[in-house]
Write a structure and sequence with these properties.
single chain; 225 residues; mainly alpha
Length: 225
Amino acid sequence: MDIKDILKKIAAGETLTDEEKEFASKFDPESTDRIPKTRLDAEIAKKKDAEKKAEDLQKQVDELNEKIENLEANGLSEADKAKKEADKQLAKLQKQVETLTTERDEARRQLSARDFTAEVGKLASAHKFDNPEYLEYLITKKNIDLKDENAVSAFFKELETAAPSHFQSNAHPGSGSGPGKETPSDAAAGQQRLSELLGKKELSMREAAEVVRLQSQQNQTAKTE
């Protein structure tokens, strides 16, 4: 039974049943699910008051934490403060030293590589080898110690047999080869070197020039076959 229906019947002048009359006489607005405005206002005010108290308490906690931090800092002795500052500076210096050490090692590596390249260039000139870059590749691959004269001598003797066309002063006729003409072993070595260079992610200017030269040699070989 709904009080609204009973009120509609009263407004329309209709007669209420005994049950409806009894329900209407006992109806109490405060006992329904509807919350009275006065009670609602009181609940809202209570909620706002609780939020205000929570904010005030948080401010007090923040202020206490700040005071504790200040007391701890002020409580340090001069020696402790100096040590703390020295530790900061030391950490900063250590980082700078690490950076400089890395740069130094890289510079040494590059210098060593340049020195090695220069030594290989001297050997190429002394033995009249026409491709210093390829010679450097072969020496590195075979791990030849340039300070070991016997090892270097044996290496070049072997190389004169394996790749004679690279030696400018030697014309090795026979077996279908002549001055300036690649032997099968030369072509295979060149193809191997070309494949290695093309497999690299990045090439130096010298390596890029070597790729162009090797590709040109491969093209010339293909034309003559």
